[in-house]
Amino acid sequence: MQNKTVVRSMDILNLFLTHSKLSFNEIVHFSGIPKTSVYRMVMSLEEMGLLDKDRDGKYSLGLLFLRFGHLVAARLDIREVALPIMQKLHDKVGEAVNLLVQDGNEAICIEKLDTKQHVRLYTAIGRRTPLYAGACSRVILAFQPQYEREQYLEQIELKPIASGTITDKERLRILLEESQKTGFTASHSELENYISAVAAPIFNNKGYIIAGISVSGLEVNYQKDLLPPLVEKVKGAALEISREFGYTDKCLCLG
Q1: How far apart are CA 235 and CA 198, in angstroms?
Q2: Which residue, of 105, 110, 179, 213, has the fewest CB within 10 Å?
Q3: Do residues 120 and 75 both lie within one domain?
């Protein structure tokens, strides 16, 4: 059942798809909503940053929409560019291939190709994971600017999720430093027991981390002697995507 206030608020916001600015009376007129209800909703939308009011008293969409718009556009761009490269990687390894981006203190999966094996994995499109747990989340954390990484480590509580989740901050720091040197991250039973993953960072033209790509599957397929070929394939895919965003070996990587 739809919430009436939410639906009416969306009706008001939708007016700005065809009007750049509207006065209060124009919003009442075009929406057909009673004036007292419009007043309450417009005040709330303005407080939340969804509407802005100028000196003439006219309303327009707030800057918050611009922020959301940049995030959505960037994520869609990454997904669109990465998907064919993810497909090639999937064809080579037969494992699940995942694409994650940072969202605050978490990583969110924005694309996934399922494993060819009959096994259900933790990762799904829209699934969120803490930056410290799992190869793909942690590779994003590893290549953040140092001050951002340290700020995160100081304030985060490392909670166990599966049997291999890292809950010691010093060990986590060591693993993050190793990832910066090797260019990849591996995880075993960190988000789900008996599931492993290998991930590599995706950079933009300025050397900033913008996403992580990983392959994941049953832990038995990720033992030490089996890792090197997987690592090279994942790193190769990550580099190919990065180059699509203008990254070169000369870019300053801010890890």
Answers
A1: 9
A2: 105
A3: yes
